[in-house]
Each structure stands twice: as C-alpha cells, then as structure tokens.
Amino acid sequence: MRNKIFTLLLISAIGLVSCRKGKIEQNIKQYDESQIQNYISANGITGLKKDTSGGDTTGIHYKIILPGNTALGPLDYPDQVSFVFTLRSMDGKYVSSDTIQNHMEDYLGHLTSDALPYGLQLSIKNLVKYKGASARLLIPSHLAYGVSGYGSGSSQNANTKIAGNQCLDYYVHVIDNYKTYDEQVIHNNYDVSTYIKKESVLYPGNFYYYKILTPGTGASPITAAGSFTATYTGSLLNGTVFDGANNGDNISAPLIVSSLVPGVQEALQNNVVVGTKISIIIPSTLGYANTTSGTIPTNSVLRFTFVIVTVTP
To answer: CB 34: neighbour CB atoms within 10 A?
Structure first.
C-alpha cells in the first residue's frame, strides 16, 4: 500500500513539474513590450521607431516630431537641458498634460535625481538629442518607475500615483531659445491683441506686455526709486494662482519697485498712478528665469494684475 501511495505522489509531482515547464512566463521586458504594443494598437499610434541606439533595443518606442538645432551638436550628460513635457501612464489613470506646469531644467545627467525616469534621461540623450527637438516617447516600465510606481496614495485614484509596472507615454520638447519659446507660449495661451508690447530696457531683446484696465486718478507715477501699496494677483497662464494673498480688499504692505522682478518693474514705472488697474504678462526671462520660486515652475511665463492704492515716489 505504501509503495502505491509513493508511486501516485511521484507521478503527481512529475505532472506538476511538467506543467510548470510547459507554461511560458514573460520576463519584464517581454511584459513591457506586450503592454506597449497593446497601447499602440488601442490608440491607433503610427510612425514609431524602436530604439536601437545601444546596438540592441532598450524597449523604448519613439517618434521625432521636430529635429531640433543640429548645429549646436548633440546633448550629453554634462549639458544643462531645459524642457517641457506631458506624461500619461498606459492604464490612463495618471495624466499630466500641462506644459505650462511641467517645466524642468537641470544637467542631463541629473534628471533621475529629479525623480524623472531613467528612460526619459536616456531618450533625451540618445533619441531627442538636440535643443529645439521634440518627440513622443513610449517608455517601458523597467526604465520608468518599476514595480513600485511613483507618487502617493492609491493608483486607483486618478492622478495621484503611477501604478507599478506601468509603461509611460511622454511628449517632450527641449527648449533651444526661451525668448522665442515664451513668445509662443504667450500667444498660444492668452489674447494679447489689445495689449501694448514693449521691449525691456534692462534686458534688451526681451518683450513684456501690459494693458491699462482702469485708468488711475493720482498725479504721481510709480518710479524706479519709489514704493507703492496695491491689491494684486500673480498667476501662470493656465490660471494657477501662485500669489493671491493680496487680492480682493487685502491691501499689500509697501512694495519697493526695485525689489520686484524686472518685467513688473518696467511695466509699472511711469505707466501707473493711484487707482490704476493694470494687467502685465512677462516672459520667464523677465521673471524668475531658470529658478523655482515657491509654486512657480522654472522658466515660467507670468501674469499679474495690480490695482494701485498708494504711491510713494
């Protein structure tokens, strides 16, 4: 009897092993490729190439939209790079599509330290390559955020966390010239047809826009050496308010003109008096440039609305 039981157990074990050997399990690269191919098919995406820059494939699929300024030479890891991007996880649960908000500037070799995927860093170096270039990139999860994903909370809630093993759909545009790019952003996102366009005195070649919404009644204009109080709001061109503490009836403490960002300084000087309501749009070069200030992303176009309460020349 014991021999029969042992024989049956042995046959069962052999059967289980045979079943395991017959089952083909995907490794992570194969899983990612399957996920990407399904995404391409479901979304009718065409014209993509597969990255073979290292002699083999990384699993990144890409399409160059603009070739960029090849005369400047290809980007390398020690180079400073500025770009805007959009991002979508392939399950559709994480979408970040605002290029006004999604700005980045750092050394190319440091992008992974900024919590960006290695696949994006690799793609900018090997595929996008040049300043002024833009591309669509499908990045496999093993070159993105891996099994852990990225963010906080539940990946079941929209736009809180990228789930584990999610491949990513990126659009990226590397900035060549911020003067030109900011002009495009202003005209694409705001109607400045009734604004006055003026070249900066402090930074020639850079232009700001202003419009007097309500003429003032005071006699003394704001000067470079003066100060003033006001109610005001600062916002990005997507409507995000980054400075709203002194809007409405909440009058600011005295503001020293020379302490303001260059575009605001120049727009206010000799254009406004007590009672003036003015709208100002300034490029990033006349704002905070490539620094981040509070919730203002690096290299951001800014819009301000001021109502002048008092002026001290």
So the answer is: 12
At 53-102, the pLDDT tens digits run 888 889 999 999 999 999 999 999 999 999 999 999 999 999 999 999 99
Which CATH number is correct for 179-312, 3.10.50.40, 3.30.420.10, 3.40.190.10, 3.40.50.1820?
3.10.50.40
Distance CA 266, CA 145 (A): 45
Could you tell me the fold of the domain covering 28-176? Chitinase A; domain 3 (3.10.50)
Alpha carbon distances (Å) from 130 to 64, 85, 100, 125, 289: 11, 15, 21, 8, 21
Closest by Cα among 299, 309, 302 to 274:
309
Q: Is the dihedral of CA 62, 67, 71, 72 positive or negative?
A: negative
Distance of CA 51 to the CA centre of its chain: 24
- Rounded CA-CA distance 84/296 in Å is 14
Please work out, in degrees rounded to the nearest 5, the angle formed at the alpha carbon of residue 224 by the alpha carbons of 218 and 230: 50
pTM: 0.85
Residues of 133-158 as b/e, b for ≥16 C-beta within 10 angstroms? bbbbbbbbbbbbbeeebbeeeebeee
